[in-house]
Amino acid sequence: MFCQGAFVLYLLLTEVKILWAVEDANVDAFTPQDCSLECLRQGDPDCKYCRITPGDVQKALGSKGLKTLGSCIPWPCFELMGNEDPDICQHYVHSPNNVTVETLEDPDLSSDTVVVAWRPSPYGIAFLRGFQVSLQVLGGSSVSCQLFLFHRNLSLPSSHAQKVYKSDPFRGLPLGSQYAVTVMALPVPEQWDRFYHSTTFCTRSCAEKNGFDKCKRDWYPQHVTIEQNGTTAAVTFNLAPENLHIRSYFSVCYINSIKKQTNKVDITPNLSTNKTHHTFKLQDLQEGTNYTCEIAADVVDAVRKTFTIHIKEPDSSLSTSPVVLLLPLALALAAVIIVIVVAFTLTKAKMKLLKLHIVPDSDIINEHQESKTQEEVISWPKTRASPPRLLICYSSSDGPAHIKAVMKLGSFIQQHMATQVCLDLWDSLSVAQEGSLAWHSRQIRDCDFVLVMCSPGLSHRLATTEFKENSEEEESSWETDNFTADAAISLIGAEVGRAKARGQDLSKYMAAIFEYSEETDIPTELSLVSHYTLTSDLPLLFSHLHGVSLHRPGGYLKISHISEEGFTKLPAGVALQSAICEAGEVMKARRIVPVH
Predict the structure, then answer these.
(1) Which of 23, 254, 320, 430 is least buried, going by the fewest C-beta atoms within 10 A?
(2) Which of 406, 435, 405, 398 lies closest to 422, judged by CA?
(3) For the CA atoms of the chain, what is the radius of gyration?
């Protein structure tokens, strides 16, 4: 009995130990620690996983080296760890895996805080020296970087690939924003393209973090009731909570869901009488008509609540007055006489036309209308296994407003036109590593399509390129980037010329302008390719990218979110339209500045 009891106790202790081991494995994660570069270089065992601040890098490289490399250039291994052992920075290290983003509690109601976690790859783990983590806004140029290093004498076993490493918190990320996070294994090999792992994530919306009643932009009236009295409708809706400080609202109505505004009502409730609900009236509505109405807070990008109203026709009970009884008979008799006269006139005219062998215009119009009504809406046949890749090239000579319009266009195409967009501003890490001209050359070769956004600054810089090359004055970094982009566009023009000379297809290349530019801004090198004006030609651009016809006999392809009516319903479409308007104002102001 004693042996049996001891055996049972042994099994229980073994099971508890296994559970403890599993629990320890789940919670075992390395978080950054504070330590100096000297500690790392000397190989102190206490410097296991150290955060490297910009001050540490500046101290090691000097302000000039820091300015040259920037905060997000791949880690300069030789400069930071010393060059006494050249082999330390030349071994192969594979990219990390299992990259995840964890949201932390943030007292700021308008932002999120996240921590990035990952596991190292078992390939080359013995030569791993650290990680670099970068965070970039999608559609923007701002980048935030963190650098973490091991001490130089550390050699990790392959079993360590199951350990989890974490970054420092990234704080102050605006709610409802999209980000790309990149985790890079260090050291970076010179000729290897799989040393980093990238993924995208979104910060929480205001409603997800703070609750619906604390978000001014996401709030909308949830409870709407209608009471009808003839051609007047009394609409009652719930007011926003007081903490949102919403004092005015508006309502618009459309007839039969046609987006043509018929009447708009501005609403300013009297909060001293009722702080929870308000009633307003819609008057002079048409009888026998269906209305689709929307109500929302009078703030930018407010969410709208939709409701419907049906105004019935008046009761058609007959009156006993003789005049009322005779009036319909008189009207019917007059209508019969008018129909007979019109029919006789048309018959006589048709007889004359038949003698002259002329087809009446009314018949042609009727035939056209009949054929038009027989057209059917065709669904988009998605035949591609993967979305096409589109490279967007541009010149930054026209300033930040034009660059913002290009970025918003890329975001809209990627989100709503089933296309993968390549833009140098979104891939600053690769551009810095390869060089702008080499990066553009590779993308021109690998992408399915190339779109050149033409502008006044582009045509002007191409016209003065020769002068810029012969100039001996020192150019700023911004001008050098401009010249590189213009050189890439000149390379595209040369590719188009060679393809035309060989009789090859030119559909890979396109040129486009925004509505504030002119056709003369398209350079001569791109006169042979397809031209588009955006945003009015978005359907044509979609047709080009996916090789589908917008019209065919008996039908047409309709994609609502890139049509002129549906384009501005999307947040990305509103942002693109706003950016184009801002850039147009800048261009207009630039044209009217007097020349001295």
Answers:
(1) 320
(2) 406
(3) 34
User: H-helix or E-strand containing 504?
Assistant: none
Q: What is the largest CA-CA distance in the chain?
A: 124
List the chain domain ranges.
Answer: 27-210, 215-311, 344-374, 389-591
Listed in order, strand segments (DSSP E) in 83-213 are: 97-104, 111-119, 130-137, 143-149, 164-166, 170-174, 178-186, 196-202
In terms of Cα–Cα distance, which of 305, 124, 278 is closest to 220? 305
Give the long-range contacts of residues 500-507, CB within 8 A, separation 24 or more: 500/528, 506/530, 507/449, 507/544
Q: Residue 529 is encoded by which pair of tokens?
A: 């390719």
Q: How far is CA 303 from CA 253, 260, 307, 588, in A?
A: 16, 19, 13, 33
CATH code: domain 215-311 is 2.60.40.10
Asked, colleague to colleague, whether 27-210 and 389-591 share their fold, the answer is no
pLDDT of residue 40 exceeding 50: yes
- Alpha carbons 503 and 497: distance in angstroms, whole number: 10
- In the chain, the percentage of residues whose pLDDT exceeds 70 is 71
Tell me the β-bridge partners of 118: 165
Cα–Cα dist 125/156, whole Å: 6
In this prediction the pTM is 0.44
User: Is the pLDDT score of 166 beyond 60?
Assistant: yes
- DSSP helix/strand/coil, 318: coil
The answer to whether residues 99 and 197 touch, using CB atoms and an 8 Å cutoff, is yes
CATH of range 27-210; options 3.40.50.620, 3.40.50.300, 1.20.810.10, 2.60.40.10 = 2.60.40.10
CATH code, 389-591: 3.40.50.11530
> 371 pLDDT band (50/70/90 cuts)?
very low
